[in-house]
Prior knowledge:
There is one protein chain. The chain is mainly alpha-helical. It folds into 2 domains: 1-102, no CATH class; 111-191, no CATH class. Helix content is 46%, strand content 4%. It contains 8 helices and 3 strands. The longest helix is centred in the middle third of the chain and has 15 residues, at 111-125. It is elongated and about 50 Å long. The relative contact order is 0.10. Residues 1-31 have low confidence and may be disordered. The structure holds zinc ion (2 copies).
Amino acid sequence: MLAKIFSQAFTKATWGTSASIIILGVNLVEMNHADHYQTALICKMGHVIHDRARETMLQSRVQCPLCGAEGIYQCEHCQAFIRGFNPQINAVDWQMGQAPKYCHQCGEPYPWIQEAIKTMVMIIDILNDLNEAEKTILSENITDLLELNSETDKAMAHVLDLSAKIKNTWGWGIFFEILKDLAPEDVKTHLGICD
Ligand SMILES: [Zn+2]
Ligand SMILES: [Zn+2]
């Protein structure tokens, strides 16, 4: 395991100076990002287990104390370490409130976002007030609602249009609950689902 972490750290990170490599040897996992991020350990359901995980934690299988799901600390697509505490950016008492949604290196959604997207697609499928075209567009809109991009405005407009049509169904309520958990503040404000 340690050898694996070592080789990944060396292949993924770009170490500018020999001083960085000395740091790597001394405190491998804590400083495994060239940009000083420590590693976060997050369960597959998206609960933050630790935002500055120690090497010993990463060597053993850690389960989430909240839900029992397995903890991960690397992107499953590109193996980049999940970013946690950064002493150059964060105050000492900083705590990671929400798990990051997408890998900072390859941009793929983390497992907890993949699960949420799957659930939202399932919910859309049982919304009987929607026709097939509306369901397809809404499913395609999900990632634009979870992350601000050039399509987000269009996606929000579509949701508001549909909202007028299917406001009070049970499934639509769940769809909004997931958005409330995961969508950026701007999206929640625009859709009127702030706390
Ligand atoms: Zn959990
Ligand atoms: Zn990645």
